[in-house]
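ok new one. same drill as before - structure tokens go in, u give me an amino acid for every spot. 267 of them this time. try not to just spam alanines like last time pls lmao
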């Protein structure tokens, strides 16, 4: 109930706004006309580009009355952009400029021009660090994750990753779009203590082939293998052997002679 009664004044207000706008458009047509529809301008454009040519009657002068980010100016009857747009730094992807058309002896009217800023891939992906250190216990099970090293890119989603060397025996990526580093085969501290990898990221899968703009970035990774206690105590001398992940050393036992017949003379 309350919602309904609240809604009514809003409707009335909206009606008024529409009516006022409509009458403004009608009277504006006598002085000047902005071609309908929004104008799309890609970001990272050059300065001083034409946005729209306003159709004006004789002796009509134009001024920009609402100028978002101070980006617009008028040359003759053309609305122009002063500088290149940056999609990422603008507060909104839609800019609405208002132009006042006036002529001596007539009531001036205002026309709006809507500009949609087009996003362009003009930023590279970035890793938070150039170099990452990972400590990994030997014997970490195959397919367990030892780290997620993601890059960010204000333009592109998803990003495409590649781990080098691709032939690395011990690590692989979970997925081309998921830079989770997984164990590929069991690490043995006695065999390898340190592994160096390079993680590549690209913001367009096939940028060079499709002629699309693309950017790449790399981060280096050093994995330190940590020794864990994976062997029971050994009696030496013994013969080393591996049983699954456990290390064993098999002793042949001890030999000695005890003289059973020997008797100690004293107590
Ligand atoms: C335009 O793109 C280039 C790279 O293509 C970039 O370096 C520059 O920062 C971009 N400029 C703006 C205003 O976004
Ligand atoms: C590891 O993951 C791969 C791919 O999902 C699978 O083929 C393989 O069997 C897994 N290995 C183990 C030991 O879980
Ligand atoms: C064992 O006893 C015998 C006889 O008494 C003796 O000849 C021999 O040397 C002893 N052996 C040792 C290892 O003590």
């Amino acid at each position: 109930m309350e919602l309904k009664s609240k809604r009514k004044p809003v409707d009335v207000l909206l009606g008024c706004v529409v009516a006022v706008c409509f009458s403004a458009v009608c009277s504006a047509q006598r002085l000047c006309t902005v071609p309908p529809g929004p104008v799309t301008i890609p970001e990272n454009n050059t300065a001083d580009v034409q946005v729209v040519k306003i159709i004006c009657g004789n002796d009509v002068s134009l001024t920009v009355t609402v100028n978002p980010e101070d980006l617009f100016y008028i040359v003759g009857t053309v609305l122009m952009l002063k500088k290149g747009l940056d999609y990422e730094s603008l507060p909104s992807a839609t800019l609405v400029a208002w132009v006042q058309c006036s002529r001596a002896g007539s009531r001036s009217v205002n026309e709006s021009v809507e500009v949609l800023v087009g996003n362009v891939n003009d930023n590279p992906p970035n890793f938070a660090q150039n170099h990452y250190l990972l400590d990994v216990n030997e014997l970490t099970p195959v397919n367990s994750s030892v780290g997620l090293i993601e890059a960010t890119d204000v333009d592109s989603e998803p990003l495409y990753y590649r781990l080098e060397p691709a032939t690395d025996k011990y690590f692989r990526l979970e997925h081309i779009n998921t830079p989770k580093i997984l164990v590929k085969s069991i690490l043995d501290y006695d065999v390898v203590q340190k592994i160096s990898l390079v993680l590549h990221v690209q913001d367009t899968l096939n940028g060079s082939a499709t002629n699309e703009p693309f950017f790449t970035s790399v981060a280096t990774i050093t994995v330190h293998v940590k020794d864990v206690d994976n062997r029971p105590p050994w009696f030496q001398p013994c013969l080393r052997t591996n049983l699954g992940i456990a290390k064993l050393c098999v002793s042949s036992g001890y030999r000695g002679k005890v003289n059973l017949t020997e008797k100690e003379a004293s107590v």
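The radius of gyration is 37 Å. and btw Helices lie at 2-31, 207-210.
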